[in-house]
Structures are given as C-alpha cells and as structure tokens.
Amino acid sequence: MTNSDESSSGGLHQILTELSLPLSEELITLALTHRSFAYESGGLPTNERLEFLGDSVIGLVITEELYQRFPDLDESRLSPLRSGVVSTRALADVARQLHLGESLRLGKGEEVTGGRDKSSILADALEALFGAIYVEHGLDGAKRAIVSMMSSAIDDSLSRGVMLDGKTALQELLASRGLGGPEYEIAESGPDHAKEFQATAIVSGSRISIGRGRSKREAEQEAARLAYEVLIESKQGPNESPAK
C-alpha cells in the first residue's frame, strides 16, 4: 500500500479497535483487493469471497435490526425498508464515510476511470469488510460493526420515506395527481462480473431522475425514490427535467 493507503487503513484500524473488533492487516488488505488489481498482479486472491459472505451477513443483521426496531411494521413495509438500507447507494455512502476508497487496491483501468469513488466497487468493499469481521469475530462481532456503521443508513432511509416500495410510492403519487404511470429507461455498463445499471424515471415525457444499482430492479427503485422526492418537493406535475 502507498503512504496514503496506510493512513486510511490506519483510520479503519482505529474504528475497529474502538469497537473491540481488530483485524489483521492481511485480512483488511484482502477485503480491499478488487478483482482488477488481482488480475493485473498475476492472479492474487480477491475480496469476492469475503464480499459474498458479507452480503449475507449484512442481510441477516439488518433484517433482525429492523424487526426489533419496528415491531409494528409488517413484512410488506419492512422489506422495502431493508432494500433501501442495503442498497448500493447506502452501502457506498457508508464506505465513503470510512474512506475505504482511499485504501482500495485497484487495477490501472479502474484507477483511471474513477474506481475509487464508484458506488458498486465501494459497496462491494464494505460487504467484504463485514465478511472479514465475521470471519475473525463471528456473528456477534459482525453485528456490532454493522449496526454501528449502518445506523445512519437506517435513519437516512427513514427520513427519505423509504417505508414503501419506491416504485409503488411513485405510482400512487402520480395517480393522486391524475398523471399516468412512470416509464423507466435502462442502460448498463461495466464487465459481466461488475455490471452497473442506470435507470431514468420518465413522467409525462419528462426525465425526472436517474438511479443506479447493481441490478435493474435496484436502479429502478432508486430512480423511483428520487423521482418521488422531486415531485413531492415540486407539489405539482413534472416540468423541466432535473435528471442529470
């Protein structure tokens, strides 16, 4: 790692130490090793196995946390809330707060195309980090880390109104204003192993918002949530397109 990488890694070490969840430098390095770096370095291990593990651990911990925090919500309301908390956007935001991008081991191609701030790569790295914590400290340790680091993501989802499925909320809002249903334009980019989808929400012919995610569904949900927020603020039908 570079001096900058070591400094960022040191900050991560400090956070983990404060949570009484120290990780070895070797395990942290593995969690931050992107496939592109491993390929260019002759086939080193990547963070994908830890990411696979961390994805499941996050899902379990967040599901239990929401179940305990909101005893009056049924499955139809808990499920979309969970989707918002563990979305690519939410995970990437947490990764940015931890400055994980500064410590990522990326190949030259990803480096020059802004991979250190690419949401899909950051989200994957955070999942890998939680996977590493699970390997080292078990479910109790992973739960402590996830609840601590993801608490703001839960609060953010609540404040943004993600108590309903985003697409359903947008559909109902448009119906209440006598407007037709939204349409979604889908574009995809990236290699097969790291596809990123972009969805543009279109209402009455106007492009309202753009959502991104690691699946078509996630991108559409993000676009719908953003469009909902735009239209709630405007308190009227779409005019000029704010999508960028």
Automatic annotation (TrEMBL):
<dbReference type="GO" id="GO:0006364">
    <property type="term" value="P:rRNA processing"/>
</dbReference>
<keyword id="KW-0694">RNA-binding</keyword>
<feature type="domain" description="DRBM">
    <location>
        <begin position="165"/>
        <end position="233"/>
    </location>
</feature>
<dbReference type="GO" id="GO:0006397">
    <property type="term" value="P:mRNA processing"/>
</dbReference>
<dbReference type="Pfam" id="PF00035">
    <property type="entry name" value="dsrm"/>
</dbReference>
<dbReference type="GO" id="GO:0003725">
    <property type="term" value="F:double-stranded RNA binding"/>
</dbReference>
<keyword id="KW-0698">rRNA processing</keyword>
<dbReference type="Pfam" id="PF14622">
    <property type="entry name" value="Ribonucleas_3_3"/>
</dbReference>
<keyword id="KW-0540">Nuclease</keyword>
<dbReference type="GO" id="GO:0005737">
    <property type="term" value="C:cytoplasm"/>
</dbReference>
<keyword id="KW-0819">tRNA processing</keyword>
<protein>
    <recommendedName>
        <fullName>ribonuclease III</fullName>
        <ecNumber>3.1.26.3</ecNumber>
    </recommendedName>
</protein>
<keyword id="KW-0255">Endonuclease</keyword>
<dbReference type="InterPro" id="IPR011907">
    <property type="entry name" value="RNase_III"/>
</dbReference>
<keyword id="KW-0460">Magnesium</keyword>
<keyword id="KW-0507">mRNA processing</keyword>
<comment type="subunit">
    <text>Homodimer.</text>
</comment>
<dbReference type="InterPro" id="IPR036389">
    <property type="entry name" value="RNase_III_sf"/>
</dbReference>
<keyword id="KW-0378">Hydrolase</keyword>
<keyword id="KW-0479">Metal-binding</keyword>
<dbReference type="GO" id="GO:0046872">
    <property type="term" value="F:metal ion binding"/>
</dbReference>
<dbReference type="InterPro" id="IPR014720">
    <property type="entry name" value="dsRBD_dom"/>
</dbReference>
<dbReference type="GO" id="GO:0010468">
    <property type="term" value="P:regulation of gene expression"/>
</dbReference>
<dbReference type="GO" id="GO:0008033">
    <property type="term" value="P:tRNA processing"/>
</dbReference>
<dbReference type="GO" id="GO:0004525">
    <property type="term" value="F:ribonuclease III activity"/>
</dbReference>
<dbReference type="InterPro" id="IPR000999">
    <property type="entry name" value="RNase_III_dom"/>
</dbReference>
<feature type="domain" description="RNase III">
    <location>
        <begin position="26"/>
        <end position="138"/>
    </location>
</feature>
<keyword id="KW-0963">Cytoplasm</keyword>
<comment type="similarity">
    <text>Belongs to the ribonuclease III family.</text>
</comment>
<dbReference type="GO" id="GO:0042802">
    <property type="term" value="F:identical protein binding"/>
</dbReference>
